[in-house]
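Supplementary material to the annual report.
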Amino acid sequence: GDSVTQMEGPVTLSEEAFLTINCTYTATGYPSLFWYVQYPGEGLQLLLKATKADDKGSNKGFEATYRKETTSFHLEKGSVQVSDSAVYFCALSGRGSTLGRLYFGRGTQLTVWP
Amino acid sequence: ETGVTQTPRHLVMGMTNKKSLKCEQHLGHNAMYWYKQSAKKPLELMFVYSLEERVENNSVPSRFSPECPNSSHLFLHLHTLQPEDSALYLCASSQPGTSANEQFFGPGTRLTVL
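Predicted assembly:
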């Protein structure tokens, strides 16, 4: 079945450091891929998405490229800020899903120190 | 109001109480979801409603009873809960069949069962 595996946290970085959070997926066909972010005390917010191979999603300095050959969708940011401290979730939606069901990874806690 | 709203944001209840969580979406979507988010556990999909019909129930105990009176509103009725039911309950909505199937989340209700 469809599933997502993302790197275990927590991840702790200093401000302006480079961030990578790995995400790989298993799916039939060509799923859509997402990164969601959850700030403390809030719900999940869509950070970026990609709907087909080689698409690059980007938002707020974060990027992720849909790599079909490696079934990956790694999240990157060149220079993190304290305000990026949050939990990050990788997710996929099967192509043609009539229920819009999402499969989530377990989440990666990121803490950025000044 | 825009997006997905949830009330109350915080709820404390005893094991013998009956309470309800409310979710409302202002996005014109026709699918709605309840998730449970517990500390140290993956996000759990509880119920899926499509066009006001429950289409998925992931082995959720009967002390949780969902209701979807129309495509904009979703309730989760709670009765005789257990302390292990304490968690963040998240509501989401989507429009299945669109190119990405992304879900939009509310801020959640933080439930504490005493």
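DSSP finds no helices and twelve strands in chain A.
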